[in-house]
Amino acid sequence: MSQLLMEKASLADIPEVALPVGYSLRTFRSGDEEGLARIYCESRLDKDTVAIVRADILEDPCFRPERVFIVDFQGRLVGSSSAWVTEGEPGVGYLHMLGVLKEHQGKRLGAALTCAALRYTRDEGLGAQRLL
Predict the structure, then answer these.
(1) I want to staple 122 with a disulfide (CB 3.0 to 4.6 A). Which of 11, 95, 126, 129 is the partner?
(2) E strands of 28-110, at which residues?
(3) pTM of the predicted structure, to 2 decimals
(4) CA angle 8, 119, 18 (to 5 degrees)
(5) pLDDT in tens, the chain (132 residues)
(6) For residues 40 and 47, is the Cβ–Cβ distance under 8 A?
């Protein structure tokens, strides 16, 4: 599968995206693996079991709980994105594993997750964001 590569060269002007009533944005907590696997599976992100999420995400050198963003709806994980860093390109981050459950799409959750990852990348001191 080929990937689309886009770049946002300036992270200076990232909007705040309001979430609908009942939704909240937070970062990863221990125990979120099952919800992430459900999101990744439905979003066709090739990480469809808790074991794979633990091995490929939580054990990745880029992983930090504060880099994985979660949208929660009534105690259920319904969307996620990550702000990863590229080892081969110092100073560059990338948006990783963005997905929203189908029944919650169309509510700007993806935009909120994208902007959260972009702000984190900026605040971490990286100068550009790749969108893979």
Answers:
(1) 11
(2) 68-73, 76-85, 92-100
(3) 0.88
(4) 105
(5) 455 566 666 677 888 999 999 999 999 999 999 999 999 999 999 898 999 999 999 999 889 999 999 999 999 999 999 998 877 776 778 888 999 999 999 999 999 999 999 999 888 887 655 554
(6) yes
Sign of CA dihedral 73, 34, 40, 81: positive
Interior/surface letters 82-99, b for 16+ CB within 10 angstroms, e for the rest = bbbbeeeeeebbbbbbbb
Cα(49)–Cα(75) distance, integer angstroms? 20
Of 52, 23, 19, 16, nearest to 37 by C-alpha is 52
How is residue 46 written in tokens? 């090739």
